[in-house]
Amino acid sequence: MTKYEIMFIVKATMEENDIKKCAEDIQKLINIKPSKVIEFKEMGRKKLAYPIKKELSGYYYVMTVEATHETIKEFDRKISINEKVLRHLIIKLESE
After folding, report:
1. 96, part of any domain
2. Which of the four pLDDT bands, split at 50, 70 and 90, describes residue 91?
3. What share of the chain has pLDDT > 90, as a percent?
4. How far apart, in whole angstroms, are the C-alpha atoms of residue 17 and residue 36?
5. Residues of 53-76 as b/e, b for ≥16 C-beta within 10 angstroms?
6. What domain range is 23 assigned to?
7. 29 vs 22, 62, 89, 94, CA distance in Å?
8. What is the CATH number of the domain that holds 63?
9. What are residue 47's DSSP bridge partners?
10. How far is CA 52 from each of CA 21, 61, 78, 83, rounded to the nearest angstrom?
11. Does residue 33 lie in a domain region?
């Protein structure tokens, strides 16, 4: 399996409970055997550099995962159609 770092931004205009539930749901997309989340960090609410979908701020999350290529492809497909997520970025980490 390969290590990846995933960053995503959730709309800040939602209720706080909805934001946390959205982040948990996104985390569950990776936790499919044999893939797993190694580290999950909430970076908090930040002002965006430019408006995205008429939003001026968002909640940033970063997670380090160990996953198969198929899991990452499926994750990318599902998060792309999630209207609560403004942006996401998946980076393949160098093996040590």
Report:
1. no
2. very high
3. 82
4. 24
5. eeeebbbbbebebbbeeebbebbe
6. 2-91
7. 11, 14, 15, 23
8. 3.30.70.60
9. 57
10. 21, 16, 19, 12
11. yes
Confidence of residue 63 (pLDDT cuts 50, 70, 90): very high
Residue given tokens 């959205």 in the structure block: 22
Whole-number Å distance between alpha carbons of 7 and 78: 15
- Evaluate whether 88 touches 20 at the Cβ level (below 8 Å): no
Which two structure tokens, joined as six digits, stand for 47?
């002002």
User: Taking a C-beta distance cutoff of 8 angstroms, is the pair 1, 38 a contact?
Assistant: no
Q: Domain count for the chain, please give it.
A: 1
Residue with tokens 């770092």: 5
Whole-prediction pTM: 0.89
Q: Looking at the domain assignment, is residue 54 inside a domain? A: yes
The strand pairing partners of 11, in sequence order, are 58
Q: Is residue 69 part of a domain?
A: yes
